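Probable purine permease
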Amino acid sequence: MENSIQQVELQIQESSRQISKDDETNQQQVSGRSNKHYGWWFRIFLYIIFLLVGQSAATLLGRFYYDHGGNSKWMATFVQSAGFPILIPLLFIFKFSKKIDSSSREKPSRTSLFVIYVFFGLLLAGDNLMYSYGLLYLPVSTYSLICASQLAFNSLFSLLLNAQKFTALILNSVVIVTISAALLAVHSESDTSTKLPVGKYVIGFVCTVAASATYALYLSLLEVAFKRVIKSETFDTILKMQVFPSFVATCVCVVGLYASGDVRVLTAEMDGFQKGQVSYLMTLIWTAVLWQICCIGLLGLIFEVSSLFSNVISTLGLPAVPVFAVIFFHDKMDGEKVIALLLALWGFLSYVYQNYLDDSKAKSDINDAATITH
């Protein structure tokens, strides 16, 4: 009898130890997930800062270049991609910092990667050229608010290419942002009443809308390339998707500079720059650097979340540019632009609220699943 009691006590003690070990293991797993979650949010925050600061400052410098004597569309396009060499050292730094992936994924062939880099490089060069025309022929405040239409285009492409679900709030966001851009197209008298001819205003408007659509397609195709072709989870993958297409886009711009004859007048343009030669060079150099910082943030958000999310964050920075344009370039901020600005903010907040609802639902589903398991 005593032996039986002792055996039962020993079994109870072993069971207690096993439960204690399981609890410790679960706590370690939860702690690991928590640390991973915090690390993910830190990266997202960093990418958002890169995108917003780079985009806003580079756009303002692009307008500064045109306002003080710069006139080459190909040079303005060139600096949007020519800053990629500053990222090359990072390729070597992050080459071996790879995430552990339990699944053995087949790596894409060099031919596939070459085709991807060339395709995105050509698409990037064409898109940057259209943006350069838009920034030349439009006030920077109008230009930035029209660029908000890229959210509507990206929502459409995300639905078609990335299986992004459409809700009432996202549809509201798309419609409101589209109305915001259309409002600027219909009420353009305050801008065309200045030195700018109506014809050039129309060209600038069409080029900016076309560039926004192309940019949205570019982002959605990037997400497809990351998920279906490249299938890699390393930061150097993001860098390569910036460096190599930028190299192709830069080569296209060099050809454009020579074919258009702009290369022959660049020296005269630098000499005639109103703020001096040093200011001319620094404007171009910092514009190139800031666009690369912006693109790293953009690609990071696509890699970590989605193309639509990265575009929403990009749209968030657009309303800030007209405010800075009024301060630094003395652009007019009339009633139409104020309404367009408020509509753009409304559209952005609608999308952010939808993301908040999705995140809350996902957390609730995880908690319910954990409750059922236990």
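thats it. The chain has one domain: 44-95+109-356. Residues 44-95+109-356 form one domain. bye
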